[in-house]
Amino acid sequence: MLERLDRIQIAAAQLDEGSAPFVNLLGAEPIGDDVVNCLGARRRTLHAGRSAIEILAPDSDSPEGAVAHFIGRWGPGLFGAGFNTHNFSGLKNHFDEQGTAYTEEAGQLFLTAEETGAHGMPVVITPSGSEELGRKGLIRSIYEITNIVEDQTGVAAQYAQLFKLDAAQFHHIESEMFGYEGTLTLFRPSDRLDRIEVVTVTDEAKTMGRFASKRGESLYMFFVESDQMDEIRDRLREHAPRDWSDSPNREGGDVLFVHPKAASGVLFGVSRTSVGWLWSGAPERVVKAGD
Question: Which CATH class name applies to 4-127?
C-alpha cells in the first residue's frame, strides 16, 4: 500500500540549526512550520526534490515528548521515516484490522517505533498528493532509509505484513565492505527505487556495526538521488569540506556520503540518478552519465 518514501524526520535542538545543512547543501526550501502534538515537537517542513524533510525540535510545552526524549538520549539525528499512499483510508483500515495503534493528527498517521514492531523505526503516513510537491533544490527525491535490526529477514516479512507490501518484489543485498546483509523492501520496482533497507550487521568493527553496538535496532541513514552531483560537491566543499567522502566502492563520482557532523547528526548518501539500480536488482536500468 505504500507508494513512496516521501519524507524523513530529523530531531534537532532548534529548527533553524536543524534546517540549515539541508538548505545549504541540497538547496532545500522551507515551506512551513507547525506543531505535532503527538511527538511533542515543533516542526519545520523542507521541500527537497519531490520529497520532504521534517525537522523536529522539542516543544517547550512538551518537555517529556518523544522528540525531547530522543534528543536527551542520543542527541540530534534521524528520528523517523515517512511514506505516502494513494489508499490512505484503506491503510488505516488495514492497521485497525491488525490491531496496529496509530495517532491521526493534521491529516497524517503517526506510528511509534513500538507500533511498527519495536525495531527502532517511528513512521508517519501521508496521503499521496496532499502537498503536491514539485521538484525543488538539487536532488530528485529521497528513496531509501536504512533500518538496522537483529533479524533482517524476519523484520522485512513483518513490514510486508504491516504495510501490505509485496514481498515477492523485495531484493536481497549484502556488503562485505560495509559489513551487513539485508532486504530492500522495494515498493514498486517497476518504476521506482523507494524502499526501506532492512539490514543486519555482519561485521561489528565497521562503521555500521559500531553504530549498532551503541544504538541497537534503529534508523541509521538515508539516501537521495540527484542529477546535480557536481553542484552538491561544490556546496560540500564550501560548507563542510572535511565532512563528506566519495564512496569507496563506486567509480566515476556516482555516489558520495555526507557525514553526521555536517548534517544535523545524520549520515546520508547521494547517488547520481538511476545509479541506485546497481545494487537494487536491475543494473541494466542505470543510465550512463551524460546520456
Answer: alpha beta
21, 262 contact by CB (below 8 A): yes
The whole-number pLDDT of residue 249 equals: 74
β-strand pairing of 41-48 with 103-105: unpaired
Amino acid at 85: T
Q: Is 134 helix (H, G, I), strand (E, B) or coil?
A: coil
Range of lowest pLDDT (11-25, 30-44, 49-63, 244-258): 244-258
CA 3 to mean position of chain CA atoms: 14
- CA distances to 93, 119, 143, 167, 214 from 162, rounded to whole Å, are 12, 13, 19, 12, 27
The answer to whether the CB of 152 falls within 8 A of the CB of 146 is: no
Report percent pLDDT > 70 for the chain: 97
Q: How far is CA 176 from CA 56, 179, 205, in A?
A: 34, 5, 12
Cβ(102)–Cβ(111) below 8 Å: yes
Q: What is the pLDDT of residues 123-148, one digit of tens each?
A: 999 999 855 567 889 999 999 999 99
Is the CATH number of domain 141-285 3.10.180.10?
Answer: yes
User: What residue ranges of the chain are covered by domains with CATH 3.10.180.10?
Assistant: 4-127, 141-285
Determine whether 168 is exposed, middle or buried from the number of CB atoms within 10 Å of its CB (0-12, 13-18, 19+): exposed
Q: How many other CB atoms are there within 10 angstroms of residue 143's CB atom?
A: 24
